Amino acid sequence: MPTNAEVAELFRGIADILDVLGERFKPEAYRRAARSIESLTEELAAVAARNELRTIPGVGDAIEEKIREVLATGHLGYYDRLQKEVPPGILELLRVPGLGPKTARRFWTELGVEGPAELADAIRQGKLDGVKGFGPKKVEQVRRALAAVAGAPTARMPIEVAFPIAHRLLEGLRRAGGVEQLELAGSFRRGRETVGDLDVLATSSDPERVFDAFSRLPEVREVRLRGGTKETVLLQNGLQVDLRVVEPTAFGAAWLYFTGSKDHNVHLRSIARDRGLKINEYGIFRGEERIGGGTETEVYAALDLAWIPPELREDRGEIDAAAHGPLPPLVEEGDLRGDLHRHLPPDAGVREVDDLLAAARARKLAYVGVVVATAPPEGPVTRLGAAPLARLDAARSPGLTVLRGIEVGPGGPPPELGGVPSDYVIVRPPEGAAGAPPSRVPGGAVLVAHLGHDDAARAWGSWATAAGAAVEVGPGADRIDATAARAIREAGGRLAIPTGLGAPDDDPVAPLALRFARRAGAGPHDVQNCDAAAPLTRSGSKRRA
DNA sequence: GCCGTTTTCGGCCCGACTGTTTTCAGTCG
Known about the structure:
Layout: H1 4-20, H2 26-38, H3 44-49, H4 61-73, H5 77-83, H6 88-93, H7 101-111, H8 116-124, H9 136-151, E1 157-158, H10 159-176, E2 182-184, H11 186-190, E3 194-195, E4 197-203, H12 207-215, E5 220-226, E6 230-235, E7 240-246, H13 251-259, H14 262-274, E8 278-280, E9 283-286, E10 289-292, H15 296-302, H16 318-323, E11 338-342, H17 350-362, E12 367-375, E13 382-383, H18 386-394, E14 401-408, E15 424-427, E16 445-448, H19 457-467, E17 470-472, H20 482-490, E18 494-496, H21 509-519
Parallel strand pairs: 4-7, 11-12, 12-14, 14-15, 15-16, 16-17, 17-18
Antiparallel strand pairs: 1-3, 2-4, 5-6, 6-7, 8-9, 9-10, 12-13
The protein binds one DNA strand through residues 23-30, 32-33, 57-63, 97-103, 132-135, 137-138, 141, 186, 197, 199, 225-230, 232, 242, 244, 257-258, 260, 262, 265-270, 272-274, 278-282.
């Protein structure tokens, strides 16, 4: 049975071939279906079994039938036939930056070139000289792009890896001066798990100065292109960054546009067109007249839509919802009232305890849970020292409840931890194996952390609901991303969001966990640590410190 | 190939940048 990702990849392959064959609208139709399928929270087979494939955005009669064929047989006759029409190497040419379907097709039909290696040979032999549309600059551009693409496949980067990089770039630009507003856009702002590039948007009275400063940042390896309003650079690590500078009056329209997603933009613009309006990155227009664009809200309002949070802008029904009034509120940083998963360093002393509690008070948290002992499925048993433990228990603060947590595997606390008094349990599933939830519930379990298995998310979500537990969301290999968080919510489970208490500014875990939860559509009621009081603990009473 | 509170047919977002051209095609996002 093919996975959703494999079916999406198949449809992208179809789109590429159709592109080279010169089809006009079909390629985008297949790509749109591919994007939708990728973002599903369950297997296609389950959707097909309920006969609901047509409810997937971009899936109509023809694509539904193709999905059913692939699910049933593992093959698609249509794709097999298409593959015979175009040499495989031509499709590789589409991966070369600056080469598109039109150009690839010309290389193939006019020069007999059938792949990247042959194209490089053709350039060396001067076969492109004098070909219409290929001057010396274009040939050199293609030659360099071919050389670059040979060594570096362009993979999307996990957002938690991009986070500190984006943080540094913005810091650098601010320090250089000349920028007024400065924001990230693109899939980064939408909180996607991976980013293909970074989009940075600025307003400035002196764009040239901003571009100059950007080009000189130490992270920048080379400037790819530069015009009056945008500059594209490549970082040392290969990540591409686009910087746009716009007028302050157009900031909202530009931020909306560059945040995407593409499908969201296309839908908005088609609504505008139906109403005799036009949206571009400079504003929203009726004829020549500009009727808004300073803020995103103005643009949405001109279409009688409520403002839509970036995390939801995927054209998965959010636009229809916004037409009927404000969307249900998503969880915000200020909604977080406590944190039940703080670790202290193994050699923590009294000082670290005091710092953590001071940070909790500064954030006005109502409760904080500190892990005092761990016996995870893998790794050694660790315990907090006697002195910091005493300090923790002795902490006195009218507003702050302090709790002791122990972190254990699905089987519950091992004998080694028998003597450790605790208020609640953090369950940590074993790494690697797509572990099924335990059949019995460890007494007073309130949190599942470091789950990391997308496939198991739905099952753990159901289990957590029954256990009165929450599942921790966040970036990284052993955490839960937005898609899995959505599956947990659909299974009736609640989420927990780390607060980042005491973490440095560029630490990605807390801000991205919040974005993932929002992307999963979670409001404050769906998040355990938005509750005003600490969850019920195993003793049935809260440890008032 | 998809889609529809004008539509089951006839549309399908919009502009920047580059290189090659004397007004535009291709690519990209």
